[in-house]
User: Which sequence fits this backbone?
């Protein structure tokens, strides 16, 4: 497969395919005499793995570790589980941070009249000297 076909087969843009090769996440594709990148079935499988890992929110460094584990037949599943559970904890932290941002923005939007007056607590909060918007708590549930 050439790069455009590989992109369609994996769901990874041509630009990202080149980037992944450039940073060493995946091995560079073989080159035809014409200079075109040629992707083998094994390369496509690896790229699909990368895409699925990205879809789960893994960062490039983590994907590199996962690839190493995937390609190592003597790996311990505990290593894979550890990486996955660490990632779950990171995602949960990001979710808490997003919930906090949502609550703050909802609070600010609720207190903005949204009329013709220039007063706007959203802009006032963003322009405040401490540069941190007021935090609002959001009910869990």
Assistant:
């Amino acid at each position: 497969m050439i790069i455009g076909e590989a992109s369609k087969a994996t769901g990874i843009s041509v630009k990202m395919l080149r980037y992944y090769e450039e940073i060493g996440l995946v091995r560079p594709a073989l080159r035809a005499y014409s200079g075109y990148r040629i992707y083998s079935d094994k390369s496509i499988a690896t790229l699909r793995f990368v895409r699925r890992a990205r879809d789960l929110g893994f960062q490039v460094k983590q994907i590199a570790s996962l690839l190493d584990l995937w390609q190592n037949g003597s790996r311990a599943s505990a290593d894979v589980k550890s990486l996955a559970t660490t990632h779950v904890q990171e995602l949960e932290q990001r979710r808490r941070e997003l919930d906090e941002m949502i609550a703050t923005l909802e609070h600010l939007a609720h207190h903005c009249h949204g009329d013709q007056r220039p007063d706007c607590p959203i802009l006032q909060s963003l322009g405040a000297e401490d540069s941190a918007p007021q935090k609002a708590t959001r009910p869990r549930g």
User: Anything to note?
Assistant: The beta strands are 30-31, 37-38.
